[in-house]
Amino acid sequence: MTPPLLKQQADDASVVNLRDGVGATLKALRQARRVTLSEVSTRLKYSARQLQALENEQWADLPSGLPLRGLVKNYARFLEADVDAIMTMLGNQTGEAATPKVNISPVNTGPEFTPTDLPVQSESGGFSWVWFIVILLVIVAAAFYAIDRGWLPESWLVFEWLRPSANP
């Protein structure tokens, strides 16, 4: 007889009254998932005091603006709630609505731009030839230094003038 009562209690806990506010909604969702404030605090890296202030809707104890929105969004995601609905509730409750996405249309009045209005920029070919020549000279100098020190085997020296002379 107790299992139906537990199921009924779980069903009752999953019903959330959206008129209660953001804090009460998040608290009801947390309790329905049977998660403690300390577990949420550990997972989300917010203090239990902040989460409790949010659930009690003590707005003076919480940051305002974007940090508050981030806290609520992370909490809603953790509880697998409808984030957009929770954020709308937060905006309605605190009066800080999210900045709407604005479609900016081009202005058709005034003179049009022509290619001569754009600044002239020189196009670089990517890899500069000066750097190529500098690198090539460094490699040639290193090769002659290695030959002079005798670091290369004589079989690698194809030209006679590169080989050391027999007369010291």
Q: SSE layout and pairings?
A:
Blueprint: H1 2-14, H2 22-32, H3 37-44, H4 48-55, H5 66-78, H6 83-94, H7 129-149
Helix pairs in contact: 5-6
CATH class of the largest domain: Mainly Alpha
How many separate domains make up the residues?
2
**What oligomeric state do these chains adopt?**
single chain
- Taking pLDDT < 50 over at least 5 consecutive residues as the criterion, the unreliable ranges are 1-13
CATH fold-type name of the largest domain: 434 Repressor (Amino-terminal Domain)
Overall pLDDT? 77
User: For the CA atoms, what is the radius of gyration?
Assistant: 36 Å
Protein model, in words:
With 168 residues, this protein is an all-alpha fold. The chain has 7 helices and no strands. It has helices spanning 2-14, 22-32, 37-44, 48-55, 66-78, 83-94, 129-149. It folds into 2 domains: 10-94, Orthogonal Bundle (434 Repressor (Amino-terminal Domain)), CATH 1.10.260; 129-162. Helix 5 packs antiparallel against helix 6 (83-94).
Concise overview:
The protein has 168 residues and is mainly α.
Throw out a few tags for this protein.
168 residues; mainly alpha; elongated; 434 Repressor (Amino-terminal Domain); disordered N terminus; single chain
